[in-house]
Design a protein that fits this description.
Length: 194
């Protein structure tokens, strides 16, 4: 074991952290979150398991090696509670406190909102699902451009979502439809009179 590196950080996790650059996102989530689907869309492309760690100890171990970016206004974000967007779970404040303690400064946080558009159609084939966000890619190549569709729609969606600090992903299975899910930073409602 190397001195100074938290023993909870495997070689794989250290490798993933080395691949990251300024402004890259790192998602720390529990098994109830659709982590595998999200992981496929990352630079590393796979889920990294930190067995034996809860969310707080995982964050503490990672932050002991890699600091948060200081130029990001809210480097720590959390998903809102489904059905009660204003609810604050104890874990949220504990995570915020852990990040601030490790960083040695008050770390501002923010909320994320997840939205989805889904259907119950035939789904999208696996080989096409990996490419649907590419410019000019069309799942049904038999359709001519005169019938509609240039293959730009989902690429434009992806760039707009990313420009607003969010992420978009596809969940699909043959014969079970498709769901396009995206997260965006939550914006508090405007205060009247200001």
């Amino acid at each position: 074991m190397l001195k100074g590196i938290d023993q909870r950080l495997s070689a794989e996790i250290v490798h993933v952290l080395m691949l990251m650059g300024h402004g890259d996102d790192l998602v720390i989530c529990d098994v109830n979150h659709p982590a595998v689907t999200i992981a496929k869309e990352t630079t590393y492309g796979a889920l990294v398991d930190m067995s034996g760690c809860n969310l707080l100890t995982a964050a503490e171990a990672i932050l002991s090696l890699m600091p948060l970016d200081t130029f990001v206004s809210a480097p720590v974000a959390r998903m809102q509670v489904v059905g009660d967007a204003g609810k604050v779970l104890p874990l949220f404040s504990q995570m915020q406190a852990t990040c601030s303690r490790i960083e040695g400064r008050e770390v501002p946080g923010g909320d994320l909102v997840e939205l989805a558009v889904a259907d119950d159609g035939p789904g999208i084939p696996t080989e096409a699902a990996e490419r649907v966000f590419e410019r000019f890619y069309r799942v049904d190549t038999a359709r001519s451009r005169e019938q509609g569709g240039t293959g730009l729609g989902l690429s434009i969606v992806k760039h707009i979502i990313q420009a607003h600090g969010g992420e978009v992903r596809l969940e699909t299975a043959p014969g079970k439809g498709a769901a396009f899910r995206f997260t965006l930073p939550a914006v508090p409602p405007p205060v009247m009179g200001k």
